[in-house]
Specification:
The chain is an alpha/beta fold. The chain is built from 12 helices and 10 strands.
Length: 269
């Protein structure tokens, strides 16, 4: 039975692969096989991965653990940081801080030839990285070789004047083979949604529990935007300091429900 991926590619439906993604998302153990069987009962040849995702989230929303729906939405939650790339830059900066870097976002620097807006400057010890954040808010998008090319050019124009020791590209989608090959050739570090193995953006988020605020289902788009505009991009900010959500002016019952959902996702193993 064929499944159509967001890129348009077709592949055989794999129950094992789907179950692995369900487990990886930290869905409660009692629901894991039930979710798989639910999808298997609704699948057909030519179904899209997006429809499979919707079947799983529909099942979870109607289960005895309705907040589990929020746990299965990481990739889309990252895309919901848009439409601009600024919240994603703030999010990446927070991730880098957890790895010991001091960060500064959106700096205008005059290079040898032209002025550049550098998404993030990250420093740790003798290391000083020029960080290029490439954000996409559509499923199936990929970062191409042009990202690697202009990151290298930007680094060379700024390196001597500002003491950069290297560059890092962080993207919330996959990258093309040319983009990766050029980056490796020019010693540019890359963190994409699924690269490198064990240290990809998804790996880092799940290992360190650095879930984005947009993963919550109980907030409207406008409410999430308020939090993002106030640089509250990590769900952990709310879990550790619930009063930071006061800027939403939610009724007491809505706030309590929102905080229960937040704590449910934060506690995920």
């Amino acid at each position: 039975m064929l499944v159509i991926k967001a890129s348009g590619e077709r592949e055989e439906f794999s129950p094992e692969k789907l179950l692995a993604s369900i487990k990886r998302a930290g869905i409660p153990i009692p629901l894991q096989n039930e979710a798989l069987e639910y999808v298997k009962g609704n699948i057909y040849s030519g179904i899209t991965t997006s429809d499979i995702y919707n079947h799983i989230t529909d099942f979870l929303a109607q289960s005895k653990y309705p907040f589990a729906k929020s746990q299965y939405s990481l990739k889309r939650a990252i895309m919901d940081l848009g439409p601009t790339g600024y919240p994603f830059e703030d999010y990446v900066a927070e991730i880098l801080k957890t790895q010991g870097f001091k960060t500064k976002t959106r700096s205008l620097l005059m290079g040898k030839c032209v002025t550049h807006e550098v998404d993030i400057i990250a420093e740790k010890g003798k290391e000083k990285l020029l960080v290029e954040c490439k954000f996409h808010n559509s499923v199936g998008s990929r970062s191409t070789v042009h990202v690697s090319l202009y990151t290298k050019a930007r680094l060379e124009d700024l390196r001597d004047k500002y003491g950069f020791t290297g560059a890092l590209i962080v993207t919330n989608t996959k990258i093309t083979s040319d983009a990766l090959a050029y980056a490796i050739c020019e010693n540019i570090k890359i963190i994409s949604w699924s690269y490198p193995d064990g240290g990809s953006l998804r790996d880092i988020i799940e290992k360190e529990k650095l879930f984005p605020m947009t993963q919550l289902q109980k907030l409207s788009f406008s409410q999430k935007k308020i939090l993002l505009d106030n640089h509250l991009v990590l769900l952990d900010d709310i879990c550790k300091n619930p009063s930071s959500a006061d800027i939403l002016n939610l009724p007491k019952d809505k706030k309590e429900e929102f905080l229960r959902e937040a704590q449910f996702v934060c506690r995920r193993s």
